[in-house]
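Q: Given only this backbone (265 positions), what sequence would you predict?
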């Protein structure tokens, strides 16, 4: 299995610039590259630049990224003894800003390694295994390429919460935060879509995660997304991502519920 940079066609162009070749099979439901992929790229570039452990990411998906060459620009806001704060901007072939992320990274040697607190938030015990999960189907009259690429599967759900397993399509030590970005972003859709029941389209324009696990994924990650509220067409969700039973990330996302034109129905 390829490494992260090979999977996404990443190449360093200068000290502050990278390019990535993002193919159509990374596209989501709205015709552009999955937002989690863009966040994962942001984390990876920041990690390579700072040579530190990612602690958090806040991504804003400003406009959709169509398949092609992505130019990634790095801005270092601060590089202190404990924390680095970096801005990652992703531009398309027309030089339009598509994604802006702020990543915080921590210097591991500055932390008190002996301080631990056991994870008390575990996946539901009655979730289906990966092999028995319900593989997402392509919607009638629509093609969502990421379904074939990441093989998302519904493992369970209750009330306003849905748990989704997502395949990790690369193999590289130390990239659990990158994998969490994709699993988290893919998980946002089902609980909101179920609530609106085809009365609106549901793109999510942002994703914020706090990374709390470091073990390398083994094949797939589990992400649970819970719809908290929809107020006048704006939805808020909370997200938990696990690597097995290790809590890997916690986060939130917004979803804009957009009217569906008659011809789209």
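A: Predicted residues:
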């Amino acid at each position: 299995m390829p490494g992260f940079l090979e999977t996404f066609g990443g190449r360093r162009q200068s000290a502050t610039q990278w390019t990535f070749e993002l193919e159509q099979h990374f596209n989501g439901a709205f015709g552009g590259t999955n937002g989690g992929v863009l966040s994962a790229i942001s984390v990876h570039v920041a990690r390579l630049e700072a040579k530190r452990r990612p602690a958090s990411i806040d991504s804003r998906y400003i406009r959709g990224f169509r398949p092609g060459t992505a130019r990634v620009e790095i801005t270092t806001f601060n590089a202190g003894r404990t924390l680095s704060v970096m801005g990652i901007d992703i531009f398309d072939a027309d030089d339009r800003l598509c994604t802006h992320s702020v990543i915080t990274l921590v210097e591991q040697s500055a932390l008190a390694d002996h301080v631990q607190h056991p994870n008390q938030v575990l996946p539901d015990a009655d979730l289906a295994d990966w092999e028995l999960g319900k593989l997402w189907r392509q919607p009638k009259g629509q093609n969502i390429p990421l379904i074939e690429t990441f093989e998302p599967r519904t493992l369970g759900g209750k009330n306003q919460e849905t748990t989704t397993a997502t395949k990790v399509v690369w193999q590289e030590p130390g990239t659990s935060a990158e994998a969490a970005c994709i699993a988290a972003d893919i998980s946002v859709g089902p609980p909101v879509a179920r609530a609106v029941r085809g009365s609106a389209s549901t793109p999510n324009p942002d994703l914020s995660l706090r990374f709390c696990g470091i073990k390398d994924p083994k094949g797939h990650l589990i992400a649970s997304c819970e719809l908290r509220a929809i107020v006048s067409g704006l939805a808020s969700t909370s997200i938990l991502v696990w690597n097995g039973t290790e809590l890997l990330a916690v986060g939130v996302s917004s979803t804009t519920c957009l009217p569906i034109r008659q011809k789209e129905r």
